[in-house]
Structures are given as C-alpha cells and as structure tokens.
Amino acid sequence: MRAMRFLTGLAILLVLGAGAFVSYAWHSAIDPIDPPSQASFDRTLVARGADLAAIGNCNVCHTAPGGQPFAGGLGIPTPFGTIYSTNITPDPETGIGRWPEAAFIRSMRKGVDREGRHLYPAFPYDHYTLVSDEDNRALYAFLMTRSAVSAAPPENELPFPFNMRMLLAGWKALYFREGPYQPDTSKTAEWNRGHYLTEGLSHCGACHTPRNRLGAEKKDEYFAGAEVENWTVYPINANSPAPIPWEADSLTFYLRHGWHEHHGASRGSMAPVTANLGSIPEPDVRAIATYVADVMGRPSQERIARGEAALATVRKESASPLALRASSTGSGIGEAIFLSACQGCHDGRRSVPFGGLNLHLSSAVNAPNAQNIINVTLFGLPAAKGEPSAIMPAYRGVLSQDQLVALLDYMRERFSDQPAWADTRERVAATMNGEREVPIYRMDGTTQAPPETSMRTAPWP
Ligand code: HEC
Ligand code: HEC
Ligand code: HEC
C-alpha cells in the first residue's frame, strides 16, 4: 500500500519534473566569494536580522542537540526519510561563508543552493519565499556575523528515488508559488504585517496545516491541525478546540510568554516557537496574533456562552476543591488516579504556569486524540534551565498502560463534552514502548525566555 503510494507519487513527479524542466529545473551556480569581514555589516541590520531569525525559528532546525548554534546536523524526519539541516554559520568550507548575499536571497526565495541545486522543502522555503529582499539582507547580515563553526551535516537518509534532487522541480511546479509577499490593500497595515510574518518567516502552517502525501500543505485545510513529531498540533482556525475562544490579546500573551491563564502552557514543538517569539518586539507578535485571530473568526454566541460556563465551573472548583470530587461523573480507577495524582496541581487554585490549568479550560482534552496528554503525563514538563518555569512530574514507570488508558478516558468524560476517544489504547501502547518517539522540549520561562536551542533535548532513551 505504502509502496504503491510512493510509486504513484513518483510517477506524478517524473511527469511533472519533465514538464517543469524549462521553468524550474535549471538554476546556475552563483560564484563563491571570500568571506566578508564581520565588521563590514551594519550593526542595526544585524540586530534586525537577529529578530527575524527568531521569528523564523532558524535556530530550532539548524542546531543539533548539544551542537553549536546554526551549525546544522539536526535530522528532520519526513515520510520519505531523514533530511539533515545544513551548517548556516559563516564557515567557508562547511557553512555559507562563501555565499554572496544574492545566493542567500535566492535560497530563501527559490529553494536553491549556491550551486543551483534544489533544496528539500524540509527547509520551509515554500513560506520563506514571501520574505522581502530587505529582510533577507538583514538575515544574511545576522548569519554572517555568527561564529563560524566547522561542521558538516551527515548525509541525508533518503532512499532512491527521493535522493534525486531533480524531482523537486516537479514538486515545485505543483506546489511552490514564488514570493515575495503581496499585501492585501483592503486590510489594515497591522493585518498585512501579521499575514506577512505568519505565512512567511513564522511558517505557522508548516505545523498547523495538514499535508498531502507528497508533503505539501493542503491549502483547503488551512490551519486545520495536524500531527508533527508525535505531538498533536491543534487547529487554529474556526475549529479551534479551545474552551475559551482565543482572541488577539490572549494570543499575543501566549505567543510571547509560552502560556496563558485560560489556555495553559505551550508544549512540544510549540515551546521553542513561543520561546523565540518572546525575544522579539511586541508589535510583531501582536500583528501575528491579529492575523491569526482573524483566521479563527468571531466565535458564535453559543461558543462564548460555553466558555463562560467553563470559567464559572473553574471558579467554583478553585473556591472549594471538594466540588470537583462531588461533581465527578466518572468512577473507578481513572477517577481515583486523577484525584490522587493530578487534582492537587490541576484544581486551579495555583495560577498557571506554576500551577496546572483546571482542565475544563484545556484544548488537550477537547483535541481529536489524547496524544498530547499522553506525552505530558508520561514525560512531564522538564524545567527550563536556570529560570522559573512550569514543571510537571513524569509518570513514566509509575502508571501501567491500563491505568493510563483509564485516566485518559476519565479526563475526556469529565472535562470535555466530546465523544470518547477511539484510539487511546493504541497510542498509549505505542508511546510507552517507544514506537512513537516523542521529542521533549524544555519549557520556556514564565516571562521572556532566551531563544535557547538546548531546549531541544534528545528523544528519551
Ligand atoms: C523546519 C526546519 C528548518 C527551519 C525552521 C529552517 N531551516 Fe534552513 N534548512 C533546513 C533543512 C533540512 C535544510 C537542508 C535542505 C536540503 O538539504 O535540501 C536547510 C537548508 C538551508 C539553507 C541552504 C544551505 C546550504 O548549504 O545548502 C539555508 C541558507 C537555510 N536553510 C537558511 C535558513 C534560515 C535563514 C532559516 C530561518 C529563517 C532557516 N533556514 C530555517 C531546515 C530548516
Ligand atoms: C514546529 C511546529 C509548530 C509551529 C511552527 C507552530 N506551532 Fe503552534 N503548536 C504546535 C503544537 C505541537 C501545539 C500543541 C502544543 C500544546 O499542546 O501545548 C501548538 C499549539 C498552538 C496554539 C495553542 C492552541 C490551543 O488551543 O491550545 C496556538 C495558539 C498556536 N500553536 C499558534 C501558532 C502560531 C501563531 C504559530 C506561528 C507563529 C505556530 N503556532 C507555529 C506546533 C507548532
Ligand atoms: C506538581 C504539579 C503537577 C502535577 C502533580 C500534575 N501536573 Fe499536569 N501540569 C502541571 C503544570 C504546572 C502544567 C503547566 C500549566 C498547564 O498548561 O496546565 C501542567 C500541564 C498539564 C497538561 C496540559 C494542560 C494544557 O492543556 O495546557 C495536562 C494535560 C496535564 N498537566 C495533565 C496532568 C495529569 C493527567 C496529571 C496526573 C497524572 C498531572 N497533570 C499532574 C503541574 C502538575
């Protein structure tokens, strides 16, 4: 079945690759230069580039666990094989030290390297193509003034035919629309700024929009949610599962701080995104929030009423924690575990992020599957390095599979009005036996966390 799909995909790509040859296939090499001196770059341009690199999460993919910043070598799993990020420090031999600015701008705009070879869209140039020349110049200045690190990434682990970069000409013909960004003049300047950043450098859709079998985002399921690295990425469109509807203010706060009192903490691969956004000027984050809130749309009266009811329940429960026990609907083992192991922190009496969210407010219990709760319960929330942060103990080795399934079923019934999850047992088993590898990211702090790449720790042993 899988092989068949690959073959069909391959056939499509070959036909398109041939068709697209003229327009996409051939790019000439751009001559190398002697690495420019760091002093030749304007300081304000470099500072601007630092903010843009944070918005673009360049550090997250271009730093291997325990490796030097931007020196590459992180393996990015795709359905086709593993692709390693490259060294984008100014090292002349293994990095981009000999790349002229024009080659860098072309790589961002067209997804081609200095020598003219197609790059895999694991490098999200389908978004970065929208970045303006001016912003690309600032990014180039920032990267070329980092410390040069000599480090060559491992070879990609892509089976034939996916190791043929030529095929990417076909992919580009099908799915790639070249930028730069064109503003929508019917909207406000802030909306356009937000649209430019969200679709371009921030590439939110790379995780929040589901992909087709050739790895391209499904434009007709924009921000509809997906699963990335065994974390469930929630929808951030009209189908947002958040009990209290998101709005521009709460989004701004969450994106900058990594948590919100009505929504809890950002976890998994969202944690480095909010850590990076915590380091950039507020107006840019607010612009992103304004645009995303617009995509979500105005919540219906009914949804607002449900959010208010959830908040009222939470207030009642935090005033008198015993109410939780009295109003419990479930019974048996799941309830017993929740009341003894979880309730003490999740009764809403201690505020987020040091206290746990009252789960009546959690998107996780309303999500299409239990994966994120499984991940958080088994692996906990590791503390951020050297700063206050949300912490939750890991229950791996404490709970059996049956107990975890019972706990999850109870939480779904107790805190959500959605039907029971269908695949909880399979997910619990696959996660506990390591078949589903879950990368764990340290939490960013309570305020502005440094955009620190060691947040990404290796998958647990
Ligand atoms: C989601 C992961 C991801 C993010 C985020 C990312 N990159 Fe990359 N990047 C990659 C991968 C993977 C490659 C290698 C692609 C290939 O081999 O075809 C790459 C390649 C590149 C290259 C080509 C280098 C070469 O030697 O061929 C440049 C330049 C680059 N990235 C710059 C950036 C910049 C600047 C940012 C931030 C604005 C960024 N990348 C963010 C994954 C990422
Ligand atoms: C690398 C993947 C990735 C990228 C890029 C990403 N997200 Fe997320 N996002 C996630 C994951 C995973 C979650 C679920 C996290 C959790 O359970 O706390 C999430 C959760 C969220 C939530 C919380 C939703 C809820 O109802 O609780 C919001 C809001 C959000 N993301 C917005 C954004 C925006 C805006 C961007 C772009 C600036 C973005 N994300 C980029 C992976 C990503
Ligand atoms: C020592 C305190 C503590 C204990 C005990 C604890 N948690 Fe947490 N938990 C937290 C904190 C702090 C957070 C981060 C804030 C937040 O998002 O709720 C968190 C987050 C979570 C989240 C994410 C909520 C969201 O949507 O943002 C879930 C789900 C969760 N915990 C489930 C559990 C379960 C299940 C148990 C019992 C097996 C448990 N927790 C026990 C402190 C705790």
TrEMBL record:
Protein name: C-type cytochrome
Intracellular or extracellular location(s): Cell membrane
Ranges where the Cytochrome c domain occurs: 44-147, 329-415
Top-rank lineage group of the source organism: Bacteria
UniProt keyword annotations, A-Z: Cell membrane, Heme, Iron, Membrane, Metal-binding, Repeat, Signal
Classification via SUPFAM superfamilies: Cytochrome c
Entry annotated with the keyword Cytoplasm: no
Protein species of origin: Microvirga arabica
Residue stretches in coiled coil: none
ATP-binding keyword on record: no
Membrane-spanning parts: none
PROSITE patterns xref list: CYTC
